[in-house]
Amino acid sequence: MSHTAVILAAGKGTRMKSDLPKVMHPIAGRTMLSWVIDAVQATDPERVVVVVGYEADRVVSSLPDGVEHCVQIEQHGTGHAVSVALEHLGAVEGDVLVLPGDTPLIGGDDLQRLLDEHRSEHNATTVLTAVVDDPHGYGRIVRDGDGHVTAIVEQSDADAETDAISEINAGMYVFDAVELTEDIATLQAGNAQGEYYLTDVVAAVVARGHTVGVVAADPDSVMGVNTHRHLAAAAALLRERINGQLMDAGVHMEDPSTVYIDSGVVVEPGASLRSNVHLTSGTVVEAGAVVGPDVSADATSIGSGAKVWYAVLRGARVGAGAEVGPYVSLRPDAELGEGSKAGTFVEIKKSVIGRGAKVPHLSYIGDATIGARSNIGAGTITVNYNGFEKFRTEIGEDVKIGSDTMLVAPVAVGDRAMTAAGSVITEDVEADAMAFGRARQVNKPGLAARLRARYRGDSAQ
To answer: φ, ψ for residue 95 (rounded to 5)?
Structure first.
């Protein structure tokens, strides 16, 4: 049987105390709503519609192709939100899956179990529930003496007996489309919140003598996010899932509790992640690479056998067997060839470091190409910016750049050439040449002693 999915995402989320719509808050590199949409799409619905309201344009712009939306201009409760969705959908048949957009831990398997139970038992309504230690804030599942669901009571409307119930409503349902349309039209706002509750549909179903189906879920899977505390707790659970799946696949983690990996990151079996590693969207770590401790990598590829430690990498490419760190910044379009090195206190941006080339320490390399096996001495800078435009530096293969060399771009240094330490290179250097770009040293005998005597004398007066 076919089904349609409705995701409720209209609220601001006032307890988040943020101008960002609640469902747009990020978790593991994606929005909460994105995780929910993925879970829904895993059930293969005919249509998916997201009910938006607060900052509607912002939420709509995040939706993937094929996902519809409708606008709940004024928010009058979950029942009202579903009525807006039904009006958008028109004459809909089959089943309707309804769930909130602030439950990023829900999986497609839980939703599929909900649908399967609904269909196998021919229920008019089936509800996803969970038994939790602290049910505060959730609607309670009220059952009769035979265990049948008789009602769902919201926290604000619960008496002391109902408030003590630990089985909560996860806010996820499957309805028969025709009956849902009829029942939504009869909802009243006679409750503490003055809202139209979708949960009142359950009472209507019971009143007609129908059985309400129930599927129990793991409490973590149905966790709703209403505050930043909730968001952090959900992120920790999601991180545990991601890290667990990677370790089961053969990734070594020194301390999984300190490893943060976004959705979409690829870490191959055989890679090793040490403590305090953050890998964000678009990053790939190949087998045999050792990353960490203390590494942040975004949209970066790290080749097999590479070693990266105490470093920040953004939009970079690290070749197989290359070494990065400690205290390195690789900025966008920094590309390190196989077996190359970026060492202590080095920054590289929009540059290619050739196979086996080394930038060992205390250097800035920007807008440059460094050929294979070349060595860049400590304190070297490619002077790539004149205040108006950027220029490139081209360094050939097997070049030796002396310490504290300033390469004023545009400039080229030929294969096997050398520069003297402390040089300012403003002209091209031909292959096999030695370039000196510094003033001749002059020694003044006794001048240091005379200066000391003069200044000591001045301070004594």
So the answer is: -105, 155
Return the pLDDT at 339.
Answer: 98
Question: What does the alpha-carbon distance between residue 216 and residue 205 come to, in Å, rounded to a whole number?
Answer: 20
d(Cα 244, Cα 70) in Å, to the nearest integer? 37
pTM for the model stands at 0.90
Question: Could you give phi then psi for residue 450, rounded to 5 degrees?
Answer: -65, -40
* Separation CA 72–CA 81 (nearest Å): 6
Q: Give the span between the Cα atoms of 208 and 225, in whole angstroms.
A: 34
Q: What are phi and psi of 246, to 5 degrees?
A: -70, -45
Cα angle 194, 199, 201 (rounded to 5 degrees) comes to 105
The residue extents of the domains of the chain are 3-222, 252-435
Instruction: Among 3.90.550.10, 3.30.390.10, 2.102.10.10, 3.30.1490.20, name the CATH number for the domain at 3-222.
Output: 3.90.550.10
Across 191-320, the runs of DSSP E, i.e. the strands, are 212-216, 252-253, 259-261, 266-267, 272-273, 277-280, 284-285, 290-291, 295-298, 301-302, 307-308, 311-314, 317-318
Nearest to 118 by CA among 42, 43, 8, 215: 215
Whether the domain at 3-222 and the domain at 252-435 fall into the same CATH topology: no
Give the residue numbers marked as catalytic: 361
pLDDT digits (tens, 9 = 90+) for 76-99: 889 999 999 999 999 888 999 999
Q: Which two tokens stand for residue 168?
A: 């909560």
Query: Is residue 420 within 8 Å of residue 404, measured between CB atoms?
Result: no
Q: Determine how many CB atoms are found less than 10 A away from the CB of residue 62.
A: 17
Report the distance separating Cα 173 and Cα 149, nearest Å: 14
Cα–Cα distance, 48 to 97 (Å, whole number): 9
Contacts of 73 (CB under 8 A, 6+ apart): 53
Taking the C-alpha atoms of residue 172 and residue 53, their distance in angstroms, rounded to an integer, is 20
Asked whether 127 and 169 are in contact (CB, 8 A), the reply is yes
252-435 sits in which CATH class? mainly beta
Convert the pLDDT of each residue in 168-226 to its tens digit. 999 999 999 999 999 898 888 777 777 888 988 988 888 888 889 999 999 999 999 99
